[in-house]
Structures
1.
Amino acid sequence: MVDVVLPDFMSVRSFQAAKRIVYGAKAIDRTGLEAKQLGLKNGLIVTDKTIEKTGLVEETRKSLENEGLKIDIFNKVEPEPRLDVADLVAETARGASYDFVVGVGGGSALDMAKVASIAMTNPDPIRQYLGLNKVKKDGVPKILIPTTAGTGSEVTNIAVVTLVDDEIKSGIVSPQLFADVVIVDPMTTITMPPKTTAGTGIDALSHAIEAIMSIQASPITDVLALEAVSRIGKSLRIAYYQGDNLKARYDMSLAALMAGLAFGSAGVAGGHAAAYAYSVKYDIAHGVSCGIALPHIMRYNMPVCEEKLVLIAKALDEETAGLPVREAACKAVTAVERLIQEVSLPTSLKSLGVPKADVATLAADMLKSERLLARQVRKITMDDAIELMKRICGE
């Protein structure tokens, strides 16, 4: 092979995802058939009590039992699950001879289903698996069914856990966490209230935009992420104000899936690092936390990724023809800010009562997310982090 210096766009990239994805209206009815085709017999549904009340868990159970499968239910998942919840999930999963797991719910339930899967084949405390590639053995097969349009957890290899004492989130990141089957049914999202619709939708938008700005982005992830941005731009407002609008719900479910596929390989970066610094400390929902940080990290990255921000502006139907590149790139930021405001989400930490005296601490906590910040297209020093946090706080 000829020894030449190659341009950045030819550098090696990889793309990874779940083994099988099934999507469309009433796709949840195929759960039993999908499990049977894998030769499975005895499963555990991992969910939370709120989702259980919607009837979706019972619908999933019936689909599985109609195919002759035996099913138990674990319904003690909580939002932003703590490490002790992950340990309880693991203990439950290890206490019976399950040969598969079904996650039904938002990102928290799906993440805990991943934990249940690997716990049955990996005996150590869950804390031992936090970090990159620390899971040694494949888990039992898992089927993941999202009921929100946001986290993308159904197609990623990450399970996020809240470390309460450290006031920060951590994650298990390993290929063993990829689902065997993903079932995306937009009909399951119709019961989401407006506030959840907004928060999860902006979470998906953060995934897509941060994946586009990541140094690990590729032509494959960019195509998926830009399509996700476009669908969110067109449909999130409608889904927020008209929850029963099937086209909007379909677009949002598909957008969350695409954004998940994009950041599952390209990763997220500075925006999520900032959000993790304050979401646990102040008990702010993940999507809200990401939405507050997103416009600021876009502005911070702009000097080194103007052209990508122009693509984002175009995906959001902003008029960019004839404009200088910087001006066109700025339209992406203002469009994102406008969308966040129009779905009634907070735009600063100040509005949530976070004191500006905490800026330095939050900046230091942001820099602890080294895995995320390694993907930053523009590096962040302590001084940079302090300035970012001042803006995020609303000074």
2.
Amino acid sequence: METAFYVAIILVSLLLMMVILLQSKASGFSGAFGGDTSAIYRTRRGLEKTLFQLTIGVAVIFVVVSLLGQWLL
């Protein structure tokens, strides 16, 4: 049982890293620090919206698996 939680948390964390790295930022960090404010308020569409929602879902799964691992072990 303990090994299954360790494997699950490793797989979910790798998936979370992959999804985060797949998200592309057109202007890099300049928009976040005042460079291009139009990039902050733009609408996500298509694949970008799907990746954003997938990132939120995988992050929730990561938190749930982590809490279950701490609670059950």
3.
Amino acid sequence: MHQATDPRRLWQRAETILLRGGHLIDPAQNVDEPRDIFLRRGVVEGLAPAIAREADLVVELAGLVCAPGFGDLHVHFREPGDEDAETIATGSRAAAVGGFTRVACMPNTHPPIDTRGQVEFVIQRAAEAGHCRVHPIAAATRGRAGQELADLRELQLAGAVAVSDDGSPVANARVMRRLLEYARTWGVLVITHAEDPDLSADGAMNEGYWSTVLGLRGNPAASEAIAIARDIRLAELAGARLHVAHVSTREGVNLVRAAKARGLPVTAETAPHYIALTEERLKSYDTSFKVAPPLRTEEDRQAVIAGLQDGTIDVIATDHAPHTQVAKDQELSAAPPGMIGLETAAAVVIEYLHHREGMELSTIVRLMASRPAQIAGWGGGSVRLGEPADLTVFAPATAWMVDPEAFASKGRNCPFRGERLRGRITMTVCGGRLTHEENLVFHPSERLQAQLV
């Protein structure tokens, strides 16, 4: 940094800010070229290859990629009820460090987010923390019990961006049909946790060769495929939108692809760990690799990557799922499933999809910024004149070693511990506010420096 003043203090006091020398990737506007960005009071006032204007603060972004703020459609912040694992404050801070300006939190808390008051509580706590926008996903059924529909319209009006019983499926087909019918009436997005609980019950890992070798009960790929097929058919019957969470199997990808080919309003997400990891990692019996749905085969991993490349899978979402160390320090069959992911997501995706698979960075930005905004309808997803700046700045070639002990999240259940990844978030700007910064050069004007003396 140019001088000792804290970057956030400089940013807060600067009326005008010039972000200079970055490469802007904005798929929503087909922009992939060098652009300077000029902000006035946090609002985008200028976008051009080179801006020659004086500013209170100049931030050097040479060699860095600037993108619309990343959005995550699937996180678990554990508050209320399990604040020892994560809070809205610590989770949203981890999101900012990971380059996210918006996240959608799932309702499997204690109590579940199934009332107006619970939705408003989440929004208020996130606003108090001030790290990123947190959009609640409300429970689809009361108490997430899968029997009686929650008040979808009330939850929507309170600020919920979608409904889901994530963590468990809506197992009853009749209830799921009614859910989709009511959701269509109000334009509510339904997110399905696609799993047949009778098939997957007590499965500690993917059913197959490695579950047999390791002597662990398996969760078959058919559990996901059967549930996706059912819910696509029910969504077609109801004429409703459906979003499929955490697709992990070749069969699941093929089902979503076929639904899109038929013109159905079906979207889907996968998570970074299904891009990078396979079931073989569980031969260590390390519970950090236990997740739901489980890590699958190499064939499934390749199918997920192919689905991302051809647009079958719309979004990469972290499924950030923190647990206490005590909860994870059990034998594999007893430990809860889940991995943290907010602070490693960008690097895992850049490493495994860009550097190893050759995916264009513009496609990655679309998967992590543009499409989440379109599907959730929460705004943003693009850098536009006259709008508050939501920006994610990253160094795609910068390598770093994953150390969960240094994370902002309370969770330490990270499957990438000790791995060297290329791709580092260097700045996050949410609503014109600087929420994360590391190793950037700031040049304050003489006027700004005088104000801070």
4.
Amino acid sequence: MVMRGFILDGMAPHIWSGPTAPADWCKDALAEADHLGISDFHVTLGAPFHDAVTGEAAYFAAPATMTFKAQGWMVTQSGAILTLAFERVESRWLIAAWTWTKGSGGGVDDVARPT
């Protein structure tokens, strides 16, 4: 099995791909959070816009709200969208790709960088 692994995110460099995409994205996200003094992430999903299974593939998209602390201040990003594509591999559903479309109200890249 070859994992495709695609991640598209509002955080630069915006795209990660290949079998190490999840680990690479996580490393970059944690480094960015540490650099900006961001902690306590929490994501809440709303009712899905789209939720479909066709054979060995599935697609899911839902509104999302993310909250986090930025340098001690609570930040809420609402109106985001989380979209996932799944593939069934050996009777398990695996995420093949996902994207986070940034909403309004501030995001990680809107936080003033400490000098």
